[in-house]
Specification:
The complex is a heterodimer of chains A (112) and B (112). Helices cover 0% and strands 51% of the residues of chain A. Chain A is mainly β and 112 residues long. In chain A, the strands form 3 sheets. In chain A, strands 2, 5, 6, 10, 11 and 12 form a 6-stranded mixed β-sheet that branches. A 4-stranded antiparallel β-sheet of chain A has the order 3-9-8-7, with no helix packed on it. Chain A has a two-stranded antiparallel sheet with strand order 1-4. The radius of gyration of chain A is 13 Å and the shape is globular. In chain B, strands 2, 4, 5, 6, 9, 10 and 11 form a 7-stranded mixed β-sheet that branches. The chains are: A mainly beta (112), B mainly beta (112). Chains A and B meet through strand 5, strand 6 and strand 11 of A and strand 4, strand 5, strand 9 and strand 10 of B.
Chain lengths: 112, 112
């Protein structure tokens, strides 16, 4: 079945460092891809999305490109801030069911 | 535009009891999905409702059930609670298949 694999965490960075969180997927068909962020004690917030191959999603300095050839959707940010500390989830949406399949989440801690 | 509202935010129940959680989706959204989040299993899909009909169901026992009302509000019920049901239950509101899901803050259920 469909699945999403994220890099293991936690990831600890200094403020202003470059961030990459790897995400690869396995899916039949052409799913939509998403990154969600979860702050402590909160639900999930949509960070960015891409609906077809080569689409680039971006928001708040974060970017991810839908790479069909490598089945990847890596999250990047050029300069992280302490406020970016959270858990990040990569997810795909099955176009036939609407069901979201999530990766296991990657905890990011940014130190001043 | 109001977001997704889940009530209550926190619940403590005893083994064997039953519980009902509520979710009000974004106005105009007719699809509501439910997810269970635990440290061990991550985010797992429970079920999805559209126009009062359950369209998809995850791999959970029959103790987990749900329904959707004509105003799109949804409830999920867990009967005969077990310790392992302790989790954050998240409701998501969608405009349609393949579109982004907007999540509520979740209901934290603790079974003692």
């Amino acid at each position: 079945g469909d699945s999403v694999t994220q890099m293991e965490g936690p990831v600890t960075l200094s403020e202003e460092a470059f961030l990459t969180i790897n995400c690869t997927y396995t899916a039949t068909g052409y799913p939509s891809l998403f990154w969600y962020v979860q702050y402590p004690g909160e639900g999930l917030q949509l960070l960015l999305k891409a609906t077809k191959a080569d689409d680039k999603g971006s928001n708040k300095g974060f970017e991810a490109t839908y790479r069909k050839e490598t089945t990847s959707f890596h999250l990047e940010k050029g300069s992280v801030q302490v406020s970016d500390s959270a858990v990040y989830f990569c997810a795909l949406s099955d176009r036939n069911t609407g069901k979201l399949i999530f990766g296991q989440g990657t905890t990011l801690q940014v130190k001043p | 535009k109001a977001g997704v509202t889940q009530t209550p935010r926190y619940l403590i129940k005893t083994r064997g009891q039953q519980v009902t959680l509520s979710c009000s989706p974004i106005s105009g959204h007719r699809s509501v999905s439910w997810y269970q989040q635990t440290p061990g299993q991550g985010l797992q899909f429970l079920f999805e409702y559209f126009s009062e009909t359950q369209r998809n169901k995850g791999n959970f026992p029959g103790r987990f059930s749900g329904r959707q009302f004509s105003n799109s509000r949804s409830e999920m019920n867990v009967s005969t609670l077990e310790l392992g049901d302790s989790a954050l239950y998240l409701c998501a509101s969608l405009a349609g298949f393949g579109t982004e899901a907007f999540f509520g803050q979740g209901t934290r259920l603790t079974v003692v």
